[in-house]
Structures are given as C-alpha cells and as structure tokens.
Design brief:
This protein has 113 residues and is mostly helical. Helix content is 86%, strand content 0%.
Length: 113
C-alpha cells in the first residue's frame, strides 16, 4: 500500500535538505578547485620569477668571473712581456761580472792574484 500524503511530509523536507547540502558541497568543491587553480598559477608565476632572477644572477656572476679572468690574464701577459725583455745589469752586477772576468783571465794566463 502506498504511503499517504501525510506520511510523505517529513520525507520531503529531508530530501530537500539533502539536495541543498549536495548543491552546497558541489559549489564548495567548485570553489576549492578554482582556488587551487589560482594557487597553482601563483606558484608557477613565482617559480618563473625565481628562475629568471637566478638566471640574471648567474649571468652577472659569470660576466664578473670572465672580467676578472681577463684582467688576471692581461696581468700575466704583461709580466711575461716584462720578463722577456732583456734587462740591463745594474752597477753591482756589472762590478761582480768584471771581477769574475778578471779572476778568470788571471787564472787562464797563469797570473795568480
């Protein structure tokens, strides 16, 4: 036997509450998905910005290293060029050389000092 109309009365509001709760849950899920999408997009944007800053820093550091290396190589090249140039002996070196040559000449000629 089918239930009478008065018996259905308490069921109708309960079903309405369930349907309303389901609708609210679906709306909350949709809102949460939208917020999650926004959070993910902000995170991706932050990651891109961090990557760009890091890339700029790496380029600045590499450029500074290249400049410093070029300067060091230039200093080394200048030192090599200076060393390669014949250096005139100073007064003390000339005197020592003269003394050594005279001593050798005396020895070779048999004249002792």
């Amino acid at each position: 036997m089918p239930p009478s109309a008065p018996d259905l009365d308490p069921v109708v509001p309960a079903i309405a509450r369930v349907l309303s709760a389901e609708l609210q849950a679906q709306q909350a899920i949709a809102q949460a998905r939208a917020e999650a999408g926004q959070i993910a997009e902000r995170a991706r944007a932050d990651a891109r910005a961090t990557a760009e800053r890091t890339e700029r820093r790496i380029r600045r550091i590499a450029a500074a290293f290249e400049r410093e290396t070029a300067q060091c190589l230039a200093e080394i090249a200048a030192e090599v060029a200076a060393i390669a140039q014949p250096q005139a002996p100073d007064h003390e070196e000339l005197a020592a050389l003269d003394q050594a040559v005279r001593a050798l000449a005396r020895r070779l000629t048999g004249k002792l000092p």
